[in-house]
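Anyone else keep sequences and structure tokens together like this?

Example one:
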Amino acid sequence: MNLQADQAKLKVLIVDDDSHFCKILSISLNAEGFQTSSADSAVKAYEKLKHDPAMRAGAPADLVLLDYYLPDLPGSELCRKFKADPELQDIPIIIMTGSSDQKHLKEAFDAGAVDYLTKPFQRVELLARISSALRLKTKIDQQKEYLRELSETARRLYKENRSLEKLSILDSLTGLHNRRYFDVTLNKEFQRARRNGATLSLLMIDIDAFKAYNDHYGHPAGDECLKRIAGVFRKIVNRSNDLVARYGGEEFAIILPDTPLTGATGVAEALRREVATLRIHHGVSRISEVVTISVGVAAMAPQAGDQPNNLITAADQALYQSKAAGRNQVTQAHPVSSMHNASA
């Protein structure tokens, strides 16, 4: 039997305190193309696998031939130690013993050995046992690689799904949440406010004379204007449960949970002032020399029978009033449905 073609450069560690035996076994295995190393104690064997540069190049070892009787530790205990070490646990171990005591063999197999050889053994038997152990190791390695690839695929798919999920709820231009996510969130926060007896506020915002700006300066400039204003909204509205969304075109919506009308109006004024301080030149606006916004503010402590659309309608009506009154201003909604409970 000649294993050289298939087994060349595979590393075998021989652990036996009989130096003469180790030498003879090494010569025999070297002739088959194996790289061999030896240790005469359990401590030296463990250190060699963990720290010897020659053994650490690539895998620590492809196979361990381990004598059951060692001066410092039974071979079964060393085998158990190998199997408890994540770096060494997949190395196949063949126990070598000069005893026919079945108890020792059971201990060896219980500790994780894959096979045994009874001394003295013949070269043909040795190579057959080694070949069998290495085939087992190949299967283990293939299974680990398959599981690694499966785990990597699962991780990649999870990451891609999260990215797709994120894209599905974000506006691609501004990076704000989109209308779809706004609708879902408003309904959720509306129900939560009704359960908790809390106040929910909504801001509807429109960029003044944006169509004229877009037509005059071009769509790239219009896109940049939208992104800069979105940045202002993100900076000012930054509580973890608040939501800023691009509602459509140049219109935005902001959900402010647990916020009364007065507090929401304060946020709206801060947004209006901050957008003006961007000093985005608007040479064709009849309202201001710079880009401005109009805001409608509504608040509600939802009661039984109230619907999210009540809040949207109220904020929309307030926004319309801001536009009708000359734009670049904030208007509070008139009481609608249960909204008289939310103005405190």
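And example two:
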Amino acid sequence: MIPQSGPALTPRARVLAALRHEESDRVPIDLGGMRSSGIHALAYRRLVTRLGLPAESPFMYDIMQQLAQPSTAVLDRFGADAVPLHRAPFGFDPARPAWKLSPLYAPPAPWMPADLAYLPRSDGGYEIRDDDAAVLFRMPANGLYFEPVHEPLA
């Protein structure tokens, strides 16, 4: 075990120690390293403002949950130990050919994949459809995230 007053660990060593249930120099910090530790685009905007950092338009790596990919400045500010290495098809991909600003947010709006569209519903909510016009996700009026409605294996 590493004593509390010992030398600072690298982020990798800190995370590995936590996974092994070993004592570390501090608790590992994860902000957006995976979907379970992500931050909603609106909360992220408030966080950036509260930290006094310049306003930014983050990439949304999870459209369904509306999760923003934290900038390096934010991760550095908190001393984050975890960073994402890969995002799934509906997620963040810096090599994706086209991005557009989300129409659901006031500036600075987050970036979303250009090939997706938020389609307004008559009840004030939104939906996302696939190329065959099947509804994949719905967001209720005044909602903060999309709910899956399509069951491809049903």
